[in-house]
Each structure stands twice: as structure tokens, then as C-alpha cells.
Write a structure and sequence with these properties.
This protein is an all-alpha fold. The chain has one domain. Helices cover about 65% and strands about 0% of the residues. It has helices at about 1-10, 15-45, 70-85. It comes from Ascaris lumbricoides (Giant roundworm). Pfam families: Membralin.
Length: about 90
């Protein structure tokens, strides 16, 4: 099917239009690659200081588990619901 589409594209689209489409696609791909490389480098240089207030209190052995929660109120309500359901006396 892909070969059929490619042959139809070659037959029905004029050569100058094909060159324009393919060149603009190439420029878009190269610019997006450059943007991804820039973002990668900038995030690598950025200092991550979101946990500096916990440095003195976290455990020194084992694994530190960090969860990113978008809606803390909703998460806490869910945790209380689960705790009430399973740890009820």
C-alpha cells in the first residue's frame, strides 16, 4: 500500500511541488532536531533544587522515592479514602 501511495504521489504531483514539499519537510525536521538538542542541553545545565530542603532528612541508605503529583488535594482525598477502607476497625 505504501508503494502504491508513493507511485501515485510521484505521478500526480509536479516535480517542483514535490521538491518544495520535501524540502520544507526536511527543514522542519532539522529545525525540530535542533530544538530538541537545545532543550536537552538547557535541561542538563539547569540546577535541580526542588529537593534541597530535604537533603538533611532523607535516608542515607536505600532508595529515595520521589512522586510528582499534579493535584495534591485530590491525591490526599484518595489516600484517606483508601486508608479508611482498609484500616478501619
Amino acid at each position: 500500500m505504501l508503494v502504491r501511495v508513493a507511485l501515485s504521489y510521484t505521478r500526480h504531483v509536479p516535480r517542483t511541488a514535490r521538491r518544495f514539499i520535501e524540502f520544507s519537510t526536511l527543514l522542519t525536521a532539522i529545525s525540530l532536531l535542533g530544538l530538541m538538542m537545545y532543550v536537552h542541553v538547557m535541561f542538563g545545565k539547569a540546577d535541580s533544587t526542588c529537593l534541597t530542603h530535604l537533603v538533611d532528612t532523607w535516608p542515607r541508605d536505600g532508595v529515595l522515592r520521589v512522586e510528582v503529583i499534579n493535584n495534591l488535594d485530590k491525591f490526599n482525598a484518595y489516600q484517606e479514602k483508601i486508608a479508611g477502607k482498609y484500616f478501619q476497625k
